[in-house]
Amino acid sequence: MHEEFTVPSKDFSVAGEASSKIKRILKQLNIPPQRIKQIIVAVFEAEVNVIAHSYGGKVICDIEEERVQIDVIDTGPGIENLDLAMTEGWSTATNEVREMGYGAGMGLPNIKKSCDELKIYTKKGDHTHISMRFTL
Amino acid sequence: MKLKEILECVDGKLVWGESHLEDEVKRGFASDLMSDVLTILEDDIILITGLSNNQSIRTAEMSDISNILLVRNKRPSQNMIDMAKELDISLSYTPYSLFKASGLLFAKGLKPVY
Fold first, then answer.
1. Residues A101, B56: C-beta atoms closer than 8 Å
2. How many residue pairs from chains A and B have C-beta atoms closer than 8 A?
3. B-chain residues near A49 (CB < 8 A)
4. ipTM
5. What is the number of H-type helices and E-type strands within chain B?
6. The domain containing residue A98 runs over which residues?
7. Closest partner residue to A40 among B35, B36, B62, by Cβ?
8. Contact B87/A56 with Cβ under 8 angstroms?
9. Residue B16 DSSP label
C-alpha cells in the first residue's frame, strides 16, 4: 500500500493530519496498538518538523506485510549540524513554534528511539530526507 | 481513579466527553511540551496541560490518550472541542495551576508515569 501526503510550511492548524490518516490505515491493518503508537509518534514528530522548520514537503507511506516504511522529504533549507539536531534538548525552534507546544528539542531523538532503522540525508541549503523503517 | 473522581479532586469542569467520566485513569502526566508527551507509551493516562490549542488534542490522539485536563482556567476553543469530539477525547478544565492540580491528584493516589 502506497500513500502520499503533502505537508505545508508553518501552518500548525493542519499539523498531524498526515499522521492521523496513517494511524487510521495502520489500525485497519490490525497492527497491535502499542506498535502503532511507536510508529505514529515518530511520523508525527517528523511531520511537525516539516511544518516548523522547512519550506514544506511530503510524507510517503509504504506498507508491506512485514514492515512499514515512512519517508519524510522536505524542500529545504536543510539541517546545518545533524549531530546537534540529534541531541536531546537542542532546538532551533522559533517562539511561535514553542507556543504551539513543540520545539523542546526532542523531535529527532524521539524518532530515533521509535524506529528500527533510521536514515537521514540533509545538507545546509539542500533538502532533508528522513527515512524510517518499522518492522511489524 | 475514575475521570469523575479526578474532576471532583481539582474542582474541574467537563467540557466534552460525558461517556469518559467512568474511564479508569491509571496515571497522570503533566506537561506543556508535546514532545515530552509523545515519549510516553503507557496506556490509560490523563494529560494535564496548560497548552490550550489543537496541538494538545493532536498529541493526545497520537499517544492514544483519551482524557485531557486543562489547567490555569484555560477554556478550550470551539475548534478544540470539535476536534475532541471527532477523536472521542474528553476535555475538562480546572481553575488550579499545573502544580496544584498535579499535587492534589498525586496526593489522592493518581500515579505518575515515572
1. yes
2. 67
3. none
4. 0.89
5. 5, 6
6. 2-135
7. B62
8. no
9. E
